[in-house]
Predict the structure.
Amino acid sequence: MTLDPSFIWTAFVQILPAIPTTLYITIVSMFFGLLIGTAVVLIRIYKVPVLHPLAAGYVTLIRGTPMLTHLLLIYFGLPMLIDSLAESFGWSFRSVSIPMIGFAYISFSITAGAYMSEVVRSGIIAVDRGQLEAAHSVGMTTFQALRRIVLPQAFAASLPNLSNGVIGMLHGSTLAFTVSVVDINAQAQIVASSNWKFFEAYLAAAVIFWGLTVLVERLTALIEKRINLYNRGGVT
Amino acid sequence: MGAQFDITAVFEYFVKLLPFIKISLLIVAGSIVVGLGVGFLVALPRLYRIPVLQRISQVYASFFRGTPILIQLFLFYYGLPELLKTVHIDVSRVPVLYFVILTYGLHSAAYISEGIRAAVTTVDRGQIEAGYAVGMTGFQAFTRIVFPQALAVAIPILGNLIIATLKDTSLAFTLGVMELTAKSQSLGQLSRHFIESYIALAAIYFILSFLLEKVFFALERRLLRHESRSETAERVSLGKKWLKRRLETKVAWTKGGTGI
């Protein structure tokens, strides 16, 4: 078995159709992660009575355990939970009807939620408290002030973290192969084992991931340039 | 799927998993040792701006940060024996564990090199000049002045990285290394008590990363005791390495991203 350079290209072409799956997982988990993260941050900042310790525990627990264990726990635990609930309440819904990728979406969203809550929190902290007070003094409600004043600035401040989060989830989505979702990694595995050319296939997969990562970085740089237009502070 | 949930099984599996902690920790320790060595070598050309080598170490860091660790594991496991075969070294009998340690080592080296760069640049250039002014050589100034200060900055970075590596070792099961995750999977398969064994697994990882975090926090406090009023940045606990840490001089520490 020797290195077959031409097969790298063949594998590359064969892996390409799996890119959307990886991107779906990344985008869906980031989207719900941001929603969960924002909710967690609001709960923690406003110290909502019962939910506050729960939110703190959620973040610590998720960040202290590997992403793989979340996926495995959801994959094995959720069907058990749903089925036993369905039996006792007489629902017709059974866990079998959840597609495999659904487990990946759910578990990665939970993972992303914990990490995103830190990102959102650091973004909100970065906005000076006086801004909110100024907004109040011109007669905005708290909701208006958050939406018009605080969140846009927090978004700009946390953009680098967000992009790192996207890249982290992009790389994390490779775990989806454990629940038999055919993403880039699983496709590379299939191509590799059906042609008995492992090195070439994984090299192609690595190149694709590298390219995607660079793409995310470049996009972030573009958005950052656009979003920081208002920022005329400093000396440059 | 599986048997009825049984809480006693969680404790039973927890105890059964304990002996495998040392395999996971071995991978972490081995990879950090490799990572520190390689990371230092990779950081040097960029610190001293050596023309061609600087570019190479940039591409190195970019590649290892731009591709998932899982892909890298497979790449090294299947690729390295083939590459070494061309120079007539047979590694087909080398245990998988070494490949795993090497891959994690090279992976963390990319992050460590960025960390070293960040840490060294936080030390004011005037410090080294002051070192020269009192007659130190370049080596003396580095080891006596820059290094101890850079270490204090680097410790939280290293701590985050070690915790992240610990969590990444859960992927080593894909190559058939019998560590915590692999063991919990086989325990689950034996008795069909998957949930219980994974809960025990999660508990062990959580306890380990919690302890590691406490150790590094204590270490950081001790190394920063020379600062009159500690200005440690807001801590991101149990850090995943792609969470950016803002250091005091606004040097970013990022996971993910290729930096080119």
Q: What stands out?
A: The radius of gyration of chain B is 21 Å. Chain B touches chain A through 52 residues (CB under 8 Å). Chain B has one domain: 7-247.
